[in-house]
Amino acid sequence: MQKGFTVKVWNSKELPADWFRRQQADQKATEELEINVKAIINEVRASGDGALVEFALKFDKAELSLRELKVKPREIKEAYNKTSPQQISALKFMQQKVNNFQKQLLTQTDIKTTNDGISVQTVLRPIESVGCYVPGGQAAYPSTLVMNAVPAKVAGVPRIVVCSPSDAKGKVNPLVLVAADICGVDEVYRVGGAQAIAALAYGTKTIMSVRKIVGPGSKYVTAAKVLVSTDVAIDMPAGPSEVLVLADESADARLIAFDMISQAEHGGDSVAGVITTSEKVAKNVQENLAKVASSTGRSEKISEALAKYGFIIVCSSMEEAIGLVNQFAAEHLEVMTTNPKELAEKLTAGLILLGPYSPVALSDYGSGTNHVLPTGGFAQSFSGLSAFDFMRRVSIVESTRVGLERVKDSIKVLTEAENLPNHYKAIMARLEK
User: Fold this and answer.
1) Please, which pLDDT band fits residue 2 given cuts at 50, 70 and 90?
2) Number of domains in the chain
3) Dist. CA 197–CA 176, nearest whole Å
4) Which residues of 228-251 are buried (b: 16+ CB within 10 A; e: fewer)?
């Protein structure tokens, strides 16, 4: 841990009006980053597989041939030999939990109404193909693969593709490959970064394009998703991860520190913050962060994230704290107060975790909820990934002659108001028979 490391405590009155947005600004594409990502996308569109091989060497230090872009079935079988029985069991447990939760979601979507001779029904149809991005290279994220692929499988998507970067030896992490097999993924490619997003969007000789791209990633991946979204659907801008803790005087500062540290170990651009009504809790969190972080693993990465994106804010009231929480609209929001359930309906976040026994780690690995969530304030307008993201809603309408008769006068008024007379004539042509 860096010598003299500390997370600053702010009084809410000291914060500039745009402080939160500046805190999240680095999570979004700068002009320079966007230019670089556009260049990568254009190169993939122009050179296809050759560009993917070149970028694998440039960014992942992996020497790949064109034939090695796609992961072969034998590699997935071999991955099981490199994975412990406990890891396989844990992945199957997570797959089942997420699968059950997503299936339950879909039971609430059968909508059909009949009124005055007009029947309206909404049905769900799966998207024909999706590309799931799974970060990798230096670390393994099999849980992200589960969160991406299982909802797609539950939705009935016939072609599920995974792209994940390899290590310098050209190997995709065996845990990721085992997770892909457990989740029924159809194709896996050792391609990462913005170039993977470009390949999924526009296709190459090896990788056929998909209808929708989902999954979190670096700033480059997020920028690439936004740039290709004019040509292919995406889930959301899901960039570097965030946790925000809302706490009052009853909160355990030690637990808050552990949760901030666990968030910071994702990487140097992770955001971890606390908004509290208690100066005592704020001070204790600050002290616990310095104490725990200095003796934990991955301390250098944690130090980088907390030094740049860690914060503690003290508010004069819970109402003020709630206002700041909703302004930030964090990816993960932990509520450690005496009345977390009462506050939940007032709060905005990608995922809300209530009470001291509901850390982010629970939602990441054991609750069945999805941890692919909007970041950078996008929780104000986006939801977390679910089976709904892999389906199209189609309305089916059927009217009787009587039903059409009953609404024709209202239709006439509106078609005249919008100067579309032939719309009404199409109605009357049926009724004048």
Assistant:
1) very low
2) 3
3) 18
4) bbeebbbbbbbbbbbbbbbbbeeb
Q: DSSP states of 367-378 as a string?
A: SS-------TTG
Side-chain-side CA neighbours of residue 291 (13 Å) = 12
Domain-embedded: residue 267: yes
Question: What domain range includes position 415?
Answer: 400-431
CB 386 within 8 A of CB 105: yes
pLDDT tens by residue, 361-407: 999 999 999 999 998 888 999 999 999 999 999 999 999 999 999 99
- Whether 332 is catalytic is yes
In the listed set 211, 234, 257, which residue is the last one of a domain according to the structure? 234
Active site residue 78: no
Q: What is the pLDDT of residue 396?
A: 95
Neighbours of 187 (CB within 10 A): 18
CA distances from 10 to 14, 266, 273, 283, 311 (A): 7, 24, 11, 11, 8
What angle, 0 to 180 degrees and rounded to 10, lies between the N-to-C axes of helices 85-106 and 142-155? 40
CA angle, residues 50, 54, 56, in degrees to nearest 5 = 115
Distance (Å) of CA 239 to CA 82, 139, 157, 188: 30, 16, 24, 22
The pLDDT confidence band at residue 26, using thresholds 50, 70 and 90, is low
Catalytic-role residue among 43, 187, 266, 332: 332
Selecting among 68, 187, 242, 331, the annotated active-site residue is 331
Half-sphere exposure of 394 (CA within 13 A, CB side): 8
Q: Are residues 218 and 89 in the same domain?
A: yes
The residue among 234, 268, 288 that closes a domain is: 234
Structure tokens at 411: 């239709």
CA-nearest of 208, 167, 170 to 187 is 208
- Euclidean distance between CA atoms 322 and 326, whole angstroms: 6
